[in-house]
Amino acid sequence: MSVPTQQIGIGRLGELVRNLMGRLAPLETATSIHGGEIDRLKNQAEDVQTEVDTLKVMVEMQDGVGADHDRKIGELEKKLARLEADVAAHENTIAKMTSTLHGQKVKTGQAKARAGRAERALDKLKASKPRKVTR
Questions:
Q1: Quick check: 25 and 89 in contact, CB under 8 A?
Q2: Facing residues of 100 across strands?
């Protein structure tokens, strides 16, 4: 699942992080070659999850999303897109080595396509300009 290029809500951001962490869990057991790298990605995903939770509390306390919150959501969105691309790349590598992904038989082209989509989504986010908040 790729992160869309437009700004997304805080709730959706949290849902995407949980989805990504769910994809990381089976990768830990899939191979020991990428073990340290998978742990690093998992730690980064947990950090993003913590930031999302903190941002949710801040928005609830201030009754709405302000310009600063909007900017922070954009930053978290970009972090998440980078993590998504890294996870997809590792899934692609593991699929090449084992011909399975998350316990299911896959063709390497499927994993490669997912990695390509994640990279393109990241490139779109990098090219997009920050959104202005009007009140």
A1: no
A2: 105
Per-residue tokens: 87: 């996870």
Please report, in angstroms and rounded to a whole number, the separation of the first and last CA atoms in the chain: 32
Quickly count: other Cβ atoms within 10 Å of residue 93's Cβ.
Answer: 20
Cα 67 to Cα 88: distance, rounded to the nearest angstrom = 32
**For residues 55 and 65, what is the distance between their CA atoms, to the nearest angstrom?**
10
Cα separation, 21 vs 74, in Å, equals 20
Q: Which residues contact 51 (CB under 8 A, 6 or more apart)?
A: 72, 76
Regarding pTM above 0.70, the answer is no
H-helix or E-strand containing 115?
helix 108-127
Query: What would the pLDDT profile of 91-116 be if each residue is shown by its tens digit?
Result: 777 666 666 555 566 666 666 777 77
